[in-house]
Amino acid sequence: MIRWLVARIAPILLLPSYISMDRHYRQAIAHVEQADQLINQPSSPADLSLGEKKLEAAEKNLGALPVWFLGYWPQHTLWWG
User: How many structural domains does the chain have?
Assistant: First the structure.
């Protein structure tokens, strides 16, 4: 509720939070893609453990996203990126 009001009156104040969300979202995607490749096409046993670490990093990034972000992001994808 407060974000909606701030977005209407002074949207520049929300820029740092949008930058943070974008960074966490993009890092989560990158970590999941790397983990997928390491786990599904391992070249050594160490790849499996590295894939697990990438998944944990992706979980950490996804955990940093606010819950309201899940329904909010698709509406502003073209505006943001």
Answer: 1
